[in-house]
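Page 47, continued from p. 46.
Same chain as before, 148 aa.
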Amino acid sequence: MKQKRHFKIREIIREKPVETQEDLAVELRKEGFKVTQATVSRDIKELRLVKVLRDNEHYCYAEPERTSLSSVRLLKMFKESIISFTSAENLIVIKTSSGTAPAVAEAVDTLNWNDVLGTIAGDNTILVIVESREAVKDIIERFEEIMR
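Result:
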């Protein structure tokens, strides 16, 4: 239940401005979650949500930017390990150097792009599941930009 609630919280704060814990509790209740302010407070801490200025008017909850040192290392691994990209329908297959696919997949996940639904990594191959066929070209272009 907690995982579903956390997933819903992320979805809510991406879709609409949420300024207070009570606002978030109200939105969760609308979605069928029975929550208290204390539960919402714990969820905010666990998700490490931060308040950011939205639309130059209000401070609202958002997920933190992923610019930590580990993210920098993962992006470096991404640049150094990629051999090729190919796609079919809404899927992208990334070939990497042997043994580096899990770290490269983590780098892709860390980018937190809305069109990327998730990744699956083997030893030297990653499957990137993209929301739609139309978004695949854009995602590949973004990958290529990172490679430069």
